[in-house]
Amino acid sequence: MKSTCPYCGVGCGVLAKPVNDSVSVQGDAEHPANAGKLCIKGSQLSSTLTSHGRLQAPVVENQQTSWTQALDYVAEKFRQSIEQYGPDSVAFYLSGQILSEDYYVANKLMKGFIGSANVDTNSRLCMSSAVAAYKRAFGSDTVPNSYDDLEETDLMILIGSNAAWTHPILYQRMRAAQKKNPHYKMVVIDPKRSATAGEADLHLAIKPGTDAMLYNGLLAYLARVGKLDQTFINQHTNNFEQALEACPQTLTEVALFCGISENKLRQFYDWFANAKRSISFYSMGINQSNSGTDKCNAIINVHLASGQIGKPGCGPYSITGQPNAMGGREVGGLANTLAAHMEFDATGIDKVSRFWRSNNIAKAPGLKALDMFEAVEQDKIKVLWVIGTNPAVSLPDSDRIKRILQQCECLIVSDCMAETDTTQYADVLLPATGWGEKNGTVTNADRTISRQRGFIQPLGQARHDWWIISEVAKRLGYGDAFQYEHAYEIFREHAQLSGFENNGSRDFDISAFSNITQQQYDSLKPIQWPVNETYPSGKARMFDDQQFFTADKKANFIAITPKLPELNAADKNSLILNNGRGRDQWHTMTRTSAAKKLNSHELYPSVLINPLDAKKLSIMANDLVKIANKNSNTLAIAKLSTSQSPGECYMSIHWNQQFANKTKANNLTQFIADPVSGQPQYKQNRVQAQAV
Ligand code: SF4
Prior knowledge:
The chain folds into 4 domains: 2-48, ADC-like domains (N-terminal domain of TfIIb, Single Sheet), CATH 2.20.25.90; 59-123 and 323-484, Rossmann fold (3-Layer(aba) Sandwich), CATH 3.40.50.740; 127-321, Dimethylsulfoxide Reductase, domain 2 (3-Layer(aba) Sandwich), CATH 3.40.228; 575-691, Barwin-like endoglucanases. Helix 3 (100-114) packs parallel to helix 21 (465-475), helix 3 packs across helix 22 (487-499) and helix 9 packs parallel to helix 15. The protein is 32% helix and 17% strand. The termini are far apart. The chain is an alpha/beta fold. Strand 23 (624-628) and strand 24 form a beta hairpin. The longest helix is centred in the first third of the chain and has 19 residues, at 67-85. The structure holds iron/sulfur cluster. Iron/sulfur cluster binds at residues 5, 7-8, 10-12, 34, 38-39, 41-42, 167-169.
C-alpha cells in the first residue's frame, strides 16, 4: 500500500505491506519527493506500529466510557459554554500531524457553525512567519518552488536550517546535485556549526537573530555592484526604493552587526551576485523569532530584486517542519485565515458562508496559539479541545503552559497515546487513529498533495479525527453539514470550496477534484497544487508568469529594520540557548521513542557548550548541568564542542516528562511571539549553566 511518511515536511512516499505479524515499510520509488529513499526515521516506521502506550478507549473524568457517552459529554460542554459565555469561550488547538480532511472538518465546525475563529494549530510554531511574509510580498501564502529546483540551482543557501538532520532526503538531493554540477555551491548560515554547516562550501556563523541584517546587506550590495534586475523590479514589483533605503550601506556595518568577518561576508555576497540561479532555503531558525516575518521578507526582497523567482533553480523557499503544515494552511487551520486561502474580509466571509450554507460564520480572526493559551489562563476560554499535539512540551515556557492546562475548565484531548505530558491534564481523552490506520491527504513543502492510506485496522476503539469532530457537530445540531461517511467526501468538498467563485483570484485551487470518486481518491497520485482546468496535472513552479496575487499583480518589497531577539535578563556568565531537532527523533518522541534504533543517537538529554565557556563555568565533559533562567530550570549532560560559538549553547527539543523527568528545552523558552505572525521566539533565550 502506498502512503506518506508521517514525520517531516519533506513528505516522502512509502510502501507499506503486512509481513507475518509485522509491517514492512520501504521508500516509494514512484514518489516525486524521495524516489524510493527514506531517512532513518522513515526507515524505522514499522517499529513504531505498536499497541504499547496507545489510548484505546474514551475516558471522561478518569473513567473509561463509551463513545456515545464521551461524545455527549463533549457536546454538552461546548453547548453550555457557548450558551453561557459566547462562541469565543471554546477553542480548537490542532496539529500539523493531522490530515487535511480532519483539519477541514474542525475548521468548518468552529469557524462555519459555532461562529468563532478560535482554531489554531501547532503549525503556528513551525511556519506562520513564512506564511505572513509570503502574504505581504505576494498577496498569497504561495510557496513558489518545487523540490526539483534544489537540483537545478547553482547556489544553495541554507539559512536557519540544519537540513542534514531535519530534512535529510532534501539534503541528500542537494548533495547529489552538487556532485554532478561543478558550479553548485552550498552556503550555510547558522550560529552553530551544524552537521549541514560542517559540509558547506561556506559557513557563516552569524550572531543569533541577525539574519535580516545579513540579507538587507545583500540587497544593498547587489545595488552597489549593479546586479539588480531592474526590469523585473520596474515591471513586477512595488516599494523597492523604500526597501533599499532601509539597508546598511557598508560591509563593515553588516559584518559587525552579524559578528562575522568581512572577507566571509564578501565571499557570500559575491557568490550571490554572480550566481545565475540561487535558492534561499529557510526553516525554523528564521521563522521562530520575534521578527520572523521580517526576516522572511528580507530574504524575499533579495530574490525579487535579483529577479530570482519563478525560474528553475531560483527562489525564496520556506521549508515546513511538519508533514501537513501546508495542508492545514489550505483548509484554514490558522486562526487568522478562512478556508481555501480565503481571508477574513467581506468577500471571503460571504463566499465561505454561502458555500457552507451557514449564517453563523466567524466574522473576524481568532486567537493565535500563544494568545489562545493566554485566554485559557485568563478564564476567557473555558473549553479547549487539543487534537494530535502535546502543547505541554511543545509550547514555550512550558511550566506556565502546564499550569494553564491544569486550570482549564474543560480540557479535551484527542490523541493516539494514553500518557503524554498533556493528556495528564485532560478531563476527556478521545482515542484517535494513528499513522497506518488513517486515510486522507497531506501537503508537503513543495505543494505536493499525497495520500496517507490505512493499511492496518484501528486499534481498540480508536476513531478518525474527522469522524469524532463530525459526531460532536451533529450533537450540537449541525448534522446536515457533517454527514460524512468517508474521507474522500471531505476532500471533494474541500476541492469544491477551493474552486468556488475563484476565477484565478486565489492561488490555492484544486477544483479539478471537485467530483472525485472514492475510487479515484483511493488511487490518487502525488500532485502539486494548483490542480484545476488550467493546470490539470498540477504546477511545479509558481510566478513563472511574473503575476502575483496582489490587487495590481505586482510583488511587494517590504522595508525591513532588523530587530535583535528579545533576551531575558543577563548576568555575566549567561549563555544564549539555541534549540532544534535532533537527527533521529520527532517532536515529543511519542512515536519515535518506540523504535530502539532511533534512541541511540542521543541516549540522554545533553547540552552542547563551547569548551571556552565550559572552562569559565567549571563544567567538565559529561557533567550533569543545571540550566536555568527566570522561567524554570532543566538538567542535561554537558557535551563540549567547538561547533558551539562561545557564549551560546544548544539543546534538542524532544525530551519531556515521559522520558526525562527534569529535562525540557521549552522550560526555558519565552512566551514571546512575532507580532505579525504570532510565531513564538523559540531560538534565543539567556540561561545560566552550572554543574550539579
Ligand atoms: Fe520521513 Fe522526512 Fe525522513 Fe522523508 S525525510 S523519510 S518525510 S522523516
